[in-house]
Amino acid sequence: MIKEDTRNKITSLLSDTLKENIIYRSEQSLSGGDINEAYRIETDAGYFFVKLNSASRFPGMFEKEARGLSLLAKPAVIPVPEVILHGEANDDSFLILQNIESGSRASGFWDEFGKNLAKLHRNHAEAFGLKHDNYIGSLPQYNHQHPDWSSFFIEERLQRQLKMAVDAGRVDRSFNRAFDRLFLRMQEIFPEEPPALLHGDLWNGNFMVNEKGKACIIDPAVYYGHREMDLGMSKLFGGFASEFYHAYNDEFPLEKGWEKRVDICNLYPLMVHVNLFGGAYAASVKNILNHV
Question: Does residue 214 contact residue 106 with C-beta atoms inside 8 Å?
Answer without folding.
Answer: yes
